[in-house]
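Go through this chain.

——
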Amino acid sequence: MDMEKEEEKESRLDIPELDLLEAELEREQYKSRYGRVLRSTAFSLIVVAAVAVLIAVLVLPVLQISGTSMTDSLQDEDIVVALNSNSYKTGEIIAFYYNNNILVKRVIASAGDWVDIDEQGNVYVNEELLDEPYITEKALGDCNIDLPYQVPDGRCFVMGDHRATSIDSRNKAVGCVSNDMVIGKILFRVWPLAGLGIVK
């Protein structure tokens, strides 16, 4: 009889109290919730990063300017945002592929237009003097094309704002830019912060 009582007492000692069971259950539920939240957060961050990369590559490419061919409008090492677009007009700045590099120049004329440049660097499009408030010094520059020059179909004629040093459509080495080479038009400068704003 004493032996049975002893066994019953031991079996009661083996059963955990209700408070301990509830505490353990709460801990397990917390770990489960924490794991779900962590996985959900990681998944959300991956999705956001993927979307940001896609937007940066396909819609709003971010580019760093290299060189001085676009001074004073853009400086060496400026960081700019472009809008992926095949629609651009005279006066807009575009980025385009050239020999595995990305160049940034200003659109001067479109397909079918006639471009002429005199010795002083005045630019004429279809015999009309182009108003260019964005340049500080005119120059004929490195020009080895026959002027006046008609822009071929599906292409645009581009020039850098720093006319004396820019190698652009005035030179046969670069020539006119085909539409499929264009990355997009430059919209904003994001760096340096002092120059933050719309690029004109």
Summary: The longest strand covers residues 101-110.
